[in-house]
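Tutorial, part two.
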Amino acid sequence: MSTSEIWKIVLKKVSEVTNAESFITWFGKTEAEIEGSTLIVKVPNQFVADWIESRYKSLIYEKVKEVTETDYEIQIALQNDEQDILESISIRGSEHHDIPTLKNQISTLEKLSQLQDAKIKELEKRLDKMEAEKKQGTTVNVNIN
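Running the prediction step on this input gives:
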């Protein structure tokens, strides 16, 4: 079974024990990959990473073990855009940086901030839509393909 197939089954099992709004918000844009004995859950931003780490990591572990019958270590990681930007920044208090390097790092941080702002706005729109649907009594369907 491929990692993609495993993750789809795990997501289906997670969706069965979480409410639809939470599932869509926290797991809607996740991916997974397996490296050795670790299953890496890739998430779109640090906020989602922190939330899943603190509230859903044990559930993910349980469902992955149920599906694979293997004790994978679960790691939460950022998807490419934000991770690449963070890795490109190497500011340390003891290092000396010239002005052009610092300006470049500030520019990179500004790009990261804009990326996070856009993701936050997208999440806020999705939450507003779900709240409006909930008030109207519309059922939120979760389709995992």
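The radius of gyration is 18 Å. In part three we will examine how such features are distributed along the chain.
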